Structures are given as C-alpha cells and as structure tokens.
Amino acid sequence: GQILLGRARSGAMTTEKPSEPGEKRPELSLIVRGSLVALVAWFVGKAAQFLFSLILGNTLGTEGLGVFSLVTTLFGVAAVFCGLGMAPAILRFGSEAAAVGDIGALRRLVARAMRAVVPACLGVGVSLWLGARLLSALFGEPQAAESLSWAPLAVLGIASSAILYEAVRARRFMASATLGFLALPPIVAIGL
User: Fold this and answer.
1) For residue 34, which of 171, 163, 185, 161 has the smallest C-alpha distance?
2) CB–CB of 14/100 below 8 Å?
3) Alpha-carbon torsion, ordered 21, 22, 26, 30, to 10 deg
4) Mean pLDDT over all residues of the chain?
5) CA terminus-to-terminus distance, the chain
6) Computed over its alpha carbons, how large is the radius of gyration of the chain?
7) In the chain, which end has fewer C-beta atoms inside a 10 angstrom radius, N or C?
8) DSSP per position, 111-131
9) In 10 A of CB 113, how many CB atoms?
C-alpha cells in the first residue's frame, strides 16, 4: 500500500492533465453523482431502518427487541475490534489503485485484509461464543446466550462486509456499494 501511495502521489502513475479554467472536470460530476446517491441511499436506509424497527418490535415484543438490540450491539462492537481498521485502509489505498486502473492491486489489498481479519474475527467470535452464558448473565438477559452462540459467524460477516463495501466504494461504484450495504443488516437480523 505504501509503495502504491508513494507512486500515486508522485504523479508517476497518473496521466491527468491540468484542467483549464472554466473547463468542466469529470471528477466533479462523479463526486456530485456519488454524493447524491449516498444521500438518497442514506434517507432510504433510515426509512427502511425505521420500518424494520417497527416490524421487529411488533414481532419480537419488548423483551425480544431488548435481547436483539443487546446482541447486535455486542456483535457490532466486536466487529469493529476484529476489523483491525482494514476497511478505511482498503478505501484509501484501494481508491488510489482503482484510480490508476490497477484493479489487481485492489484485489491483493482485499485478500491481505481478509487474511488478517478472518482469524481475528474468528478469535473474537469464539471468545463471545465461549462467554455467551457469562455475558447473558452479566446483562441479565438469559435469552441472549442462544443468539450469542452465533457470534463467530456474525462478527466475521459484519467485518468482512465492511471490507468488501469499502473495496466496492474504492472502485467508485457508490450505488452498488450502498445498496449492498443496506441489504446486509436485515439479512443478519433475519439470521439471528
């Protein structure tokens, strides 16, 4: 990543010519279009989240929704730790690789990130799984123990999807990345 970063900053890999004053830059329209897609997706995501919360609350009831919230919060926090900060690194270095057309470098970055994240997530997930009874007793929610038994798969799925999301964003496929990421939470929730 550092070699790629240095080469991209030095201009050795770019062939862009400076734009003339008053000339429209294609990057600006791409940024505006990506921002609009992200904004619309954010609104749609928040509306879907609201509807999903209503449906989930009516389906699970007060007690079940509390257990669900506790478990998904624990999984989310665990995924942040076992993600090892790879998602932002993928976006940063992957964007530079994609900007110069080196998709192979982006693939290698994702592969390296996954080789580091998978063992970390499995370790954190197995720790949650082994401590499921203790955690559920600590939080006073004995029903959470069964859901916490899915920790290895859930934590791995959340962290891996964050890496893949940033890799797709690095290729500037903002709409695809956002729609894919919006579909993930309901899928995980249904699995729980």
Assistant:
1) 171
2) yes
3) 110
4) 77
5) 36
6) 20
7) C
8) HHHHHHHHHHHHHHHHHHHHT
9) 26
> 2-6, long-range: CB within 8 Å, 24+ apart, which pairs?
4/93, 4/96, 4/97, 4/102, 4/105, 5/92, 5/93, 5/96
| Closest to 38 in 3D by CA, of 138, 192, 177, 159 | 177
Residue listed under structure tokens 């509390």: 66
| 103-130 helix and 86-99 helix, angle to the nearest 10 degrees | 170
| Each residue's pLDDT tens digit, 5-41 | 444 444 444 445 555 666 666 677 777 877 787 788 7
Per-residue pLDDT at 5 = 40
User: How many residues are listed for the chain in this entry?
Assistant: 192
Query: Residue 34 is encoded by which pair of tokens?
Result: 């990506």
Give per-residue pLDDT as tens, 66-80: 888 888 888 888 888
Q: How far apart are CA 174 and CA 55, in angstroms?
A: 28
- Pair 78, 151: CB distance under 8 Å: yes
Closest by CA to 98, choosing from 32, 157, 30, is 30
